[in-house]
User: What shape does this take?
Amino acid sequence: MPDTKLIVIAIGGNSLIEDAKHVSVAAQYEAARKTAEHIVRLASEGHRIVIAHGNGPQVGFILRRAEFSRRILHSVPLDSCVADTQGAIGYNLQMALHNEFIKAGINRPVATVVTQVEVDKDDQSFINPSKPIGTFMTREDAEYHRDTDGWNVIEDSGRGYRRVVASPLPKNIIELDSVRTLLDSGVIVIAAGGGGIPVTVNEDGTFTGAEAVIDKDLAAALMAKELKADLFVISTAVEQVCLNFGKPDQKSLDTVSVAEVRQYMNEGHFAPGSMLPKMQAIVDFIEASGNMGVITNPQNLYDAVNNEKGTHIVR
Assistant: This one.
């Protein structure tokens, strides 16, 4: 049996929605179950595990429902949308993990922590919001939300209008002590879903929810650092990180150093809205901890942790 580790795993949208044509709750559960199979294999070896997850499509669904019902129901603040999806996705993952543990004959508890994450109210992204969320809108709808709800909206290359919001950097995982206590009790923990519920801290120590979204990989990296994780894994759509992705000279990366990753980032190999934030999160974790990071897809999670698959980033 391998040495046991504390592993933080950030699972992306492909772990929750495999096919854009099949997005029902049942389909999302089945996608979560497939990822849970591999996480259960890791847990069966004694590893302690914390799971973070994305929520972009699910928040988009909530906003779309609100759009259709805006004449009869109140709007839902963005921080509440993140909280809603933390509960719903956490429930799916909890059930999937529990059921896979039952199949494996293992008794291991799983719990979801509705997690607030502190952001700086003076973060530059609040001044210039640029993160698109939700579906495309007509000009009329965009102007309605701008005037009625105070949304920031932009025209997107002739395809329609999008709402844009701040995406501030995570500063502090508010419920970190609760996560640590659960881990110490042998619980598989799901936390900081969707990057966490963004909150700002007032002078008297109280919290205020923020109309923002936090990058889930950066929040997961912060949580991994604070928990002193032995390994930080990002699960995404590809088995390995590639240079010249999608081109004839595409090259997969097996093991790569932080210095090499920085060089590749400077050369523009990683797309800003896709692989770049994942590489930045991995580098941030490694430089703070000295431990290893891994990027792979859901079906190779187990083998990647055991050094056989995926891209391994080292100091």
Notes: The chain is about 40% helix and 20% strand. The chain has a mean pLDDT of 92. The first strand starts at residue 6 and ends at 11. The chain has one domain: 6-120+173-314.
